[in-house]
Amino acid sequence: MVALAVLFSLMALLPLGFIIAIGIETGWETIKALVFRPRVAELLSNTLWLTALAVPLCIVTGVAIAWLTERTQLAGRGIWSALAVAPLAIPAFVQSYAWVSAVPSMHGLSAGVFLSVLAYYPFIYMPVAAVLRRLDPTLEDVAASLGTPPWRVFFRVVLPQLKLAICGGALLVALHLLAEYGLYVMIRFDTFTTAIYDQFQSTFSGPAANMLAGVLALCCLAILMLEGVTRGKARYARIGAGAAREQKRWPLKPAAAALGQLFFIVLIVLALGVPLVVLCRWIWLGGVQNWMSADLWHSLRQTLMLGVGGALLTTACVIPIAWLGIRYPHRIFRMLEGCIYITSSLPGIVTALALVTVTIHYARPIYQTEITLFLAYLLMFMPRALINLRAGIAQAPVELENVARSLGSTPAKALWSVTMRLAAPGAAAGAALVFLGVSNELTATLLLSPLGTRTLSTGFWALTSEIDYVAAAPYAMLMILISLPLTAILYMQSKKIAGL
User: Fold this and answer.
1) What distance in Å separates the CA atoms of residue 264 and residue 86, rounded to the nearest whole number?
2) pLDDT at position 335 over 80
3) What is the DSSP letter of 250?
4) What is the 3-state secondary structure (H, E, C) of 448-460?
5) For a 10 Å CB count at each end of the chain, is N or C smaller?
6) Residues 59-89: pLDDT tens digits?
C-alpha cells in the first residue's frame, strides 16, 4: 500500500520534473533568448491584466450573490441561488462560442474578462455561501445591537470571516484563467496557454513551447504562494459550541430589493439565457438531421468511455494515498498528498507537453495512445477523487477494519470489504467529479488523443474552428446535459453540508 502511494505521488510530479529537466537541458543562454523577448512580455501582460481584472470581479459578483441569497429577505432567493450555480454546467469554451456567434465583434481583453466572470463566478459564490450558512450570528447580533447599520456589519464583521472562502475561490478562478484555452482562442485573445498550443502545433514540442510552459507553471506557483500569504494564519473557528440558531436575514428597502432582483435577472440572462438561446437557435436551424450525424454519437460514446475509464482509474489509484493519509496521518504521507495538489494546479497543456516529451524520448510505443491519455487524466484529476475519498474513509470507523483483520481477513481484503463499502458515497462523488473533468477536457485531449479519437469537446472544437456553428451546437448541448446532473448534485450537497 505504501509503495503504491509513493509511486502515484511521485508520478504526479512528472510535469514539474519535466519543466526543471527542460530548463537544465536547454541552458541559460537559450532560455534567456526564448523567454526575455517581446512576445513573452505581451503574453505575460495579457495574463496579468486578465487575472487582475477578472478575479476581483468574480469575487464581487460571487460575494454579492451569496449575501443576497443567504442573508437578505429577497423574494425568490431560493430560485436565484440554484440558478447562480447553473453556469458551472456550461463549459467556458461553450460560453465563448455562444457569445461570439451572437456578437461576432467580441474580442480582446474586455471580452475575455466579461466571459471569464460569467463562467467562473460560481467558484466564489459556492464556498462563500457555504460559510455564510454556518457562521455564528452572535457577532452580527452584537454589532447590530450597538446601532451598526447592516452594510457596516457586513464589511466589519462578516467579510473578515469570509476571507478563507474568498481566497480559496479566487485561487480556483485564477488557476482556471491560466489554464483556459478554448474561451480565449474564440475571442482572439492571446494567453500563455493559447500561445503554447500554437507553438506546439508549429514546432512539435520545440524549446519555445517548453519555455512558455515553464513560465506558465511559474505563474501558477506564484499564485499558489500569493494565496497562501493572503490567507494568513488567523483563527477563523469559534471557541466553544457557538449559537445553534437560524441566521438573521436583513430586510431590504423597496429600492434595494428592486436592484437585487435586477442584478439577478441581468446576471442569469447573461450567464445562462444568452448561451442557451443561441444554442437552441443553432439547433433549430440545423434541424433533425443535425442529430443524425454518426460523428456526434460516436463522440458521445467515446466521451462516456473515456470519462468512465478515467474516473475508475483515478479513483482506484488514490485509494492507497487516501487510506494512508487518514489511518496514518504522518508528515511523509501529507507530503505525498501535497505532490498531487501542486501538480493539479498546473494547466492541462503543461501536463500534456510533459507526457509528449517523455513518451517520445523514453516510451515511444505508448505515445499518442489511450495509455498516455489516461495517464494525463490521472495526473490532472487525482485531487478531485482524493478529497472526496478521504472524507469517506474518515467516516468509516477503523475498529471495523481491525475486527475484519482479527477474523482472518488480509489488510487488502479488510480495506475492500469493509472500509471501501462504507466510503463508497465519497468515492462515487469523487469519480463523478473526475468524469466531468474528463468529459470537458480540451487541451490535453487535443494533444494526446490517438488518431481517430473524437470526444464531444474535440468534435465541438473541430467544427467551431471551421465556423460551422450549426453543426457544433448538438455537441455543446450534449456536454451541458452531461454536466447538469453533477452540478445539481454539487448544489444539493452544499445545502446538505449546511444542514438545509
Assistant:
1) 13
2) no
3) B
4) HCCCCCCCHHHHH
5) C
6) 999 999 999 998 888 999 889 999 999 998 9
Segment 355-365 mean pLDDT: 89
The Cα–Cα gap between 213 and 357 comes to: 12
Q: Which residues pair with 354 in a beta bridge?
A: none
Report whether pLDDT(122) > 70. Answer: yes
Q: What are phi and psi of 72, to 5 degrees?
A: -125, 170
CA atoms within 13 A on the CB side of 86: 17
What's the pLDDT score for residue 238? 54
Phi, psi of 346 (to 5 degrees): -80, 145
**What kind and span of H or E run contains 123?**
helix 122-134
- pLDDT of 399-427, one tens digit each? 777 788 888 777 777 777 777 887 887 78
* 295 band by pLDDT with thresholds 50, 70 and 90: very high
End-to-end CA distance of the chain: 38
Q: How far apart are CA 73 and CA 69, in angstroms?
A: 8
What is the amino acid identity at position 17? G
**Phi then psi for 293, rounded to 5 degrees?**
-65, 130
DSSP 408: T
Taking the C-alpha atoms of residue 476 and residue 299, their distance in angstroms, rounded to an integer, is: 12
Cβ atoms of 347 and 193 closer than 8 Å? yes
Closest listed residue to residue 220, CA positions, set 341, 116, 346: 346
Least Cα distance to 98 among 291, 272, 290 occurs for: 272
The residues that bridge with 250 in the sheet, in sequence order, are 72
Within 10 angstroms of residue 366's Cβ, the number of other Cβ atoms is: 15
What's the longest Cα–Cα distance across the chain? 73
Look up residue 2 and give its three cell numbers: 505504501
CA distances to 106, 285, 346, 354, 447 from 13, rounded to whole Å, are 38, 47, 11, 10, 20
Q: Which residue has the higher pLDDT, 306 or 161?
A: 306
Half-sphere exposure of 194 (CA within 13 A, CB side): 21
- Residue range 327-342: mean pLDDT, rounded: 75
Q: Per this entry, what is the length of the chain?
A: 500
Say if residue 204 is exposed, middle or buried (CB neighbours under 10 Å; 0-12, 13-18, 19+): exposed
* Better-predicted residue by pLDDT, 426 or 448: 448
What is the band of 214 on the pLDDT scale with cuts at 50, 70, 90?
Answer: confident
**Amino acid at the residue 141:** D
Task: Say if CB 426 and CB 273 are below 8 A apart.
Answer: no
